[in-house]
Amino acid sequence: MNSEDLGFLPATQFAELIRTKQLSPVEYMRTLLSRIETLEPKVNAFAYLAADQAMADARKAEAALMSGGRIGRLHGVPVTIKDLAITKDMPTQHGSRIMQGNQPTEDAPMVPRLRDAGAIILGKTTTSEFGWKGVSRSPLTGITHNPWKHGYNAGASSAGAAAAAAAGYGPLHQGSDGAGSIRMPSHFCGVFGLKPSFGRVPYYPVSTGDFTSHNGPITRTVADNALFLEVMAGPHPLDYTSLEAGPAAYLARLQEGVKGKRIAYSPDLGFARVDPDVAALVKAAAHRFTELGASVEEVKTPWAAPGPELIRFFWAAHLTRLAPHLERWEAKMDPGLVACIKAADNVSVAEYQAARERKMPYLANIHRWFQDWDFLLTPAVSVAAFPADRLMPEHWPQHAWDWVSWAEFSYPFNMSWNPAASVPCGFTAEGLPVGLQIVGRRFDDLGVLQASAAFEAIQPWADKRPTLT
Questions:
Q1: 30-47 average pLDDT score
Q2: Mean pLDDT of the 267-287 span
Q3: Does residue 181 have an active-site annotation?
Q4: Separation between Cα atoms, residue 433 and residue 426, nearest integer Å
């Protein structure tokens, strides 16, 4: 197995090779780090690469393996953590010069869970400044490049995680999603990302964005995603919003399929603009579910109409938490972030409460609608990757901060807490990946994984790799 094959090796296979002593954790890590160090100037997926610590942990993993010590489900498997998640032995800088060098004193709950399962943390992946936008560029780390086209957007605040997955930097990459930041970069980079039901993976410190941010996995295969989610999921006392239930048997039940399921398909949620090449690929993918024994029907989504006004209000309003930094740091911040913060300068408490009064029936209508459907299929994003030095694609209306105009499909399910995934479903004529979004009923993370695995079986993607030199 050559160095490239090792970089793209799925975690499910990797863990078995380690357990049966067919693969050395030390030799694997040495090979992987060599690949990362060669490719990183081209990709720029890491805000912090913990190469020395990863090698030391690989030696410990190998020693435990040879001595008959405890072997976890992810023994020796490399994992990356997004630079919005706190880590006590690595900086957490939020893609911002404001937080440069910031060193937390504790870990996010998923980090010790991963280590307890035997995983090795490679480092922290890049994010847009404070995770505010859908473009892979920050004042601190610059552009994270899409592995499929240098200089192009790798997408949203988990861009480093998705770019790392696409580039073959190991199998497992943690992301988070406040308005699409797991699904959007997965779409742009041609990998698989799942935003689980809200509370499935504990989130600490608990977000102040009205409970819309979710932790979840980004991988190349659905099976790796299921395995990763099982390890991360489960209640935690520091996150009072985390779900009481532990993870289901996601991996063991992955192949149960979608036969007999009722699947709704919406090309635009009734209002979203979608580029024709993206729309065509998504439509073709949606109708493939009939080959799997499901019924697919193009439907109206009357609940969706209030979404655009709500997201634009709340996105700017919640970012006003950063307003105290403007006096000192404005000149060194992302100009779009500054514009977004200032857009909500005069929002009153009464206006915020009135917006929440509109939001609650909007969410109830989503869940009421899902009583008639097992899944909803939509585009993951309206556009394929575009140059990362832009906030908006050149052929779209321009705006100082409103990147949401090309990403209308993801945020409804951050607000409603439904599980949703982006599944690779093809490439544009320019060779850029496109994702199909699969949304399930709240709590049905297993169902979304099963639907994704069923699609993966008839239209696989993990064998497709970008050309990197």
A1: 97
A2: 98
A3: yes
A4: 6
Q: What is the pLDDT of residues 88-128, one digit of tens each?
A: 999 999 999 999 999 999 999 999 999 999 999 999 999 99
Pick from 138, 111, 137: which is nearest to 122 by CA? 111
Mean pLDDT of 179-194: 98
Task: Give me the catalytic one of 128, 176, 181, 382.
Answer: 181
Domain boundaries, the chain: 3-308+336-458
Is 348 labeled as catalytic in the residue annotation?
Answer: no
Q: Per the CATH hierarchy, to which homologous superfamily does domain 3-308+336-458 belong? A: Amidase signature (AS) domain (3.90.1300.10)
Active-site residue, from 24, 96, 128, 157: 157
As a whole number, the mean pLDDT across the chain is 97
> Smallest Cα–Cα separation from 279: which of 423, 422, 142, 426?
426
Render pLDDT for 143-168 as a digit per residue (tens, 0 to 9). Answer: 999 999 999 999 999 999 999 999 99
Confidence of residue 2 (pLDDT cuts 50, 70, 90): confident
The per-residue pLDDT for 69 is 84
Mean pLDDT throughout 351-362? Answer: 98
Catalytic residue selected from 82, 124, 133, 195: 82
One-letter amino acid at 203 equals: Y
Distance separating alpha carbons of residues 162 and 369, to the nearest angstrom:
31
